[in-house]
Amino acid sequence: MIVMHTKTGVRLLGLVLVGVVLAWGAVWAKEINVPGDFPKIQEALNAAEPGDVIVIAGGDYTENLLITKSVTLQGAGRDFVSIIGDGVVPAVVIAKAQNVGISGVTITNGRNGIEMADSSLTLTNVVLKKNIRRGLSAERSVVEIKESEVLETQPDAEGFQGSGIRIADHSKVTITNVTVADNARVGVTVSDSSEATITGSKVLGTKPNASGAYGWGIDVSVNSKATIRENTVSGNTAVGIGITENSQAVIESNQIADQKPDGSGVRGYGILIQLGSKAEIRNNTLTRNTDVAIFATERTEVVIDGNQIADTQPNTFGFRGRGIQVGFLSKGTVTNNTLTNNSEVGIYIVDRSEATVENNTVTGTKSAPGSPFAAAIDFDYNVKGIINNNTIDNTIEFGITVFDCPGLVQVTNNRIARMKASSRGFGRGVEVEYSQGVTVSGNTITDTENQGIAVFGSEVEIAGNTIQRTTFRAVYITQNSRGTIAKNTVTETQLSADGFFGEGISILGASNFTITENTISGNRRGIVVGNQGTQVRIDKNIIDRNNILGTGTNAAATGALGIYVIDHAEALVTNNQITNNRIGILTDNTGEVTSCTGNTFQGNQLNTQGHVRCG
Questions:
Q1: Which single residue of 76, 159, 221, 544 has CA 20 to 30 Å from 49?
Q2: Cα separation values, 432 from 299, 353, 412, 488, Å
Q3: Where would one find coiled-coil regions in this protein (predicted)?
């Protein structure tokens, strides 16, 4: 006789007994055939014990099933076995049953194809088709769906629901290689503190409800979490993937295309993040969505990295068509994305938000039909952040705009080329309007059709930029602006079509600036200072070979000037190298150089003319 006196011995005995019970259950688990053993599936379910397998032969089975125990329904194939509900109650109800398996069947005409609560289910090679309200609805459950289809779920007679898959109330779902297509309202909805992993699946063609609302592909809401990876989300209405109401998601390597506007005519977003949600959006391809491809708003936090975003379409009213928008008290990191041929704005940060926009490539942004405005990158209304090391090419109207931003904005190390003039005539590299604390530094701006850098009513530091072959003006400052222009290279500014402008740096409109340590050459006019109240210090610059001739008969009109002070403006000119210009310094009858000391004049046809006294 063996006596066990220790806790270890008791545990060993318990493990042995558990093993015996499991083995006994496996021995007694049986296979039940329908219609061989029972003509109805429900009769087989009633007779089954936990662990039994119910094998269903080909045929149509018009019945509504209730599953309350751990069993497997194994059909002969989804093309051969149909479970047809009565359209009044769910075709299959699973209640407080664990480890249920269903495979190889089609389930149709249920008021809910499958409805489950407090259960667990594995669904394999199943079709849920033309059910009413929902294809599958799960609450407080664990669900695995794989190699299946959820198709053509219909709203009820009152026009409600019609969703493909609903996962709610602290449930968990894994969806793998599943097609969810042509449902109504939402393809897949995950809500109320639930979790989802959706991989390798297709969510297609979700339709709006009778009022024209919804039609979303995937909706994750109310404190839920999701990983959405390597799926195709296409042809849905209003939203392809939506993460809302304090939810979290990783959205990665998906193909997201052709979302259509809803009844409002506005939304057709590829991805929507809103209402306190957080998301990482990485390496997706978004094409031909409507209004905004990726839209994060209302106190969200997003990382948007490595995505390909192209051909976003304007909405029904002819506006927008934006690539990325982060707005309304949100925070965004927007990096390493490629945006091509979108409308109105490539990357739009707006409304008291904060963002780092870095290492993106934005090309071909164009005006939408309803408005001439277009910008590759736009910071608008009380935004703080960094715009760094982006490549912007062949865009209409504006490369980068900063508007009404009283906080700190840094525009650094960007490459901006081939800006095209819009119908309004604007084709500018960087524009800063009514903003404070803006730094524009280290950028390369070439071949713009209307001004390299333009500043209106702002405080700005412009430093270390290279601005070449812009048209009209390389740097244009006006409307009571303040700041410093330092260590820039400004060359070869082009004349306007009528032979005017071609100005390197123009300070107008009662502005106050220091221009120091710049190289300004090959322009029609190197520096222009104009308008009453404008005061400029010009110090330690190289002002060379500004000798392009424009239209006109007098010295001012024809140009080829180093420095030109006009219209009651005042300039302090010190310690500059002013060389090889037609005229070094020129004023009109009202402009004045108040001090002219320490300058080097060489190779000019005429060093000074007008109200200039150089010591």
A1: 76
A2: 25, 17, 14, 17
A3: none
Quick one: pLDDT band at residue 13, thresholds 50, 70, 90?
A: very low
b/e burial code for range 199-231 (CB count within 10 A of at least 16 → b): bebbbbbbbbbeeeebbbbbbbbbbbbbbbbeb
According to the model, what pLDDT value does residue 499 have? 78
Q: Which two tokens stand for residue 39?
A: 């003509």
3-state secondary structure of 91: coil
Q: Which two tokens stand for residue 360?
A: 């993106």
Task: Report the distance separating Cα 479 and Cα 456, nearest Å.
Answer: 5
The yes-or-no verdict on residue 14 having pLDDT over 70 is no
- For residue 520, list its beta bridge partners: 490, 543
Question: Alpha carbon 481 to chain centroid distance?
Answer: 33
User: CB neighbours of 521 closer than 8 A, spacing ≥ 6?
Assistant: 490, 491, 504, 542, 543, 544, 545, 546
- How far apart, in whole angstroms, are the C-alpha atoms of residue 304 and residue 268? 19
CB 81 within 8 A of CB 103: no
Q: Examine the pLDDT at 463 and tell me if it is beyond 50.
A: yes
Among the listed residues 369, 387, 393, 506, the one whose alpha carbon sits nearest the alpha carbon of residue 447: 393
**Which DSSP category does 443 fall into?**
-
| Residue 550 CA to its chain's centroid (Å) | 45
Q: Over the range 164-176, which residues count as b (16 or more CB within 10 Å of their CB) and which as e?
A: bbbbbbebbbbbb
* pLDDT at residue 17 greater than cutoff 80: no
Gap between the Cα atoms of 289 and 335, Å rounded: 20
Query: Rounded to whole angstroms, how far apart are CA atoms 391 and 411?
Result: 12
**Tally of CA atoms within 13 A in the half-sphere of 578 that contains its CB:** 31
**How large a percentage of the chain has pLDDT more than 90?**
89
The mean-pLDDT minimum among 83-92, 239-248, 321-330, 543-552 falls in: 543-552
Residue 21: partners with Cβ closer than 8 Å, 6 or more residues away: none
Whose tokens are 């080329």? That residue is: 417
Cα 124 to Cα 409: distance, rounded to the nearest angstrom:
53
pLDDT digits (tens, 9 = 90+) for 117-149: 999 999 999 999 999 999 999 999 999 999 999
Q: Vertex 286, ends 285 and 292: CA angle to 5°?
A: 150
Phi and psi for 20 in degrees, rounded to 5? -65, -45
Q: What is the mean pLDDT of residues 23-46?
A: 85
Tokens 């239209």 appear where? 551
- pTM (predicted TM-score): 0.94
Helix, strand and coil percent figures for the chain, each rounded to 5: 5, 50, 40
Q: What's the token pair of residue 376? A: 């590759």
Q: Residue 365 and residue 376: Cα distance in Å, rounded?
A: 6
The residues that bridge with 138 in the sheet, in sequence order, are 116, 167
Residue spans per domain, the chain: 29-184, 200-343, 372-471, 481-615
Q: For domain 29-184, give its CATH number from 1.10.10.10, 2.160.20.10, 3.40.190.150, 3.90.110.10.
A: 2.160.20.10
Q: What is the DSSP letter of 425?
A: S
